[in-house]
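Input for the complex:
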Amino acid sequence: MPKANTINHLPSSPSVDKVGVEERVARFQSRSIKNHAKMQGLKMVLSMIDLTTLEGKDTPGKVRQMCFKAAHLHDGYPDLPNVAAVCVYPSMVRLAKSIVGSHGINVASVSTAFPSGQAPLEVKLTDTKYAVENGADEIDMVISRGKFLAGEYAFVFDEIAAIKEVCGSARLKVILETGELITLDNVRKASDIAIYAGADFIKTSTGKIQPAATLQVTYTMLQAIRDYYDETGQMIGMKPAGGISNAKLALHNLVMVKEVLGQEWLDNKWFRFGASSLANDVLMQIMKTDSGIYQSGDYFTLD
Amino acid sequence: MNRLEVLKTYKIFIGGKFPRTESGRFYKALNANNEPVANICLSSRKDVRNAVQTARKAQGAWQERTAFNRGQILYRIAEILEGRSAQFVEELMLQSFTKKEATVEVESAIDRIVYYAGWCDKFNQVSSTVNPVSSSHFNFSTNESIGLVGVLMPATSSLLDLISYVMPIIAGGNSCVLVASEKLPLTAITFAEVLNTSDVPGGVVNILTGSVEELWSPLSAHMDVNALFIDKASRFRKDIQLAAVDNLKRVREMSADLKTENGQGLAFITAFQELKTTWHPIEKIGGASSSY
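Predicted:
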């Protein structure tokens, strides 16, 4: 079934049972993952990371460094996967692409006046086109939270659809910035809008606002993806971003994905972590699991 | 009717908090007559991990404090310990010290803390140097904290020993993770209560109780531990040295008689400092030879 192209086709979003979500999420966190399964999980986490730098102070040197890290996570340890993508501002896309392109690592670019999204549609379209023309494989757009909270859902829907159109073959991730949406009901509503408007991925946060990718929020979004899949048979990707800085939490996320959506989503085509410091913690965990010796950040590259 | 005595469970000290061991295990500390006197946490390697993590976080800020302020804080430890000395005497007696031995132990411990409090803002002047060099450089060597120090206390050591191990480490701006005496752990944890009420930032000193046999390995091999302070007579000495090789930890060994003045001194502080030498270019003024 083709995606609906106006908000009138959007089914009404079910309300979210917050207490139920919290209990369910607590159960994911009590899973014990050891040894072989843990090692597999950790490597999977690495392969799902969008290594990110989104600072005003980003320089070509900084981006170059991060891109190198993306392709050489820890050369001292054999057979590690590369990360899925690097995530940068549009102005850095060309540079990033020139470095990681040959390693099979995607370049994701934030766009649409990231992180606030407070710009006219025209500017957002130009922003996105610029990123795509410079070689971005993926576009991470932000929704207009102000409009959403003011109840102008149609505006938000149409904006996403318009951006999707200029993305061309680039996959579109839609950032809901759940920390600003306040309630899980809003998160669910925004997820549905994004999915029906044409998102290939939905993403929790920009990383600029706290709280970011809590398990509760991610669970709510996964549920929206599940419902859409049941309805249409089409898969949508999920990307929690912000606040996932340790391996344990990342593994809990994988457990949740597996149990809510199923095995098919355990692939970096359908699930990503937006993170900057997660990679090093996962690497340290892998080394620890392998050697039995607790590791130190001093022996891992910073970017 | 006889009252059933309630044995206190002594909890471990991590990051300024008193959690139970994550393993949930405990053992009974015995006195000389093999009677149980307290329940003590039997810490696991994950407690070591947690303690190292928090000690690492605390170390930077502790090192950044002015030396004078560190001295004030160490002196504060002595003040608080003085105020609670009766409790320590009592606890040592529980562990089969005589009253006289216990009193001497506590008083010596307090004096030793004051001794190291005084050194905080002086040791660097005394042990730094300006070095003569034959080029146009102002060349000086000065101390820098070694970082995070792991301490393994001998099984029968007590309060004075613990003070003698810990104080020179923290006086020099390091943080530490200490595994307390296995047989006499009571005063170590009560001392943690003293630390906690005396302005020592959480995480600078972390105290675990349990079996050294179980804990020496994760602590000595931990890549984020920069140095170790152990008893020269420790039966794990060789294993510890081998485990410490991977990240070139400094392994310092204590062999002094801690009951005497040999148990304190500048050398114990500088043992946990790295000497940093700086070559600062200077203009050769008027062809003068040795001035800077």
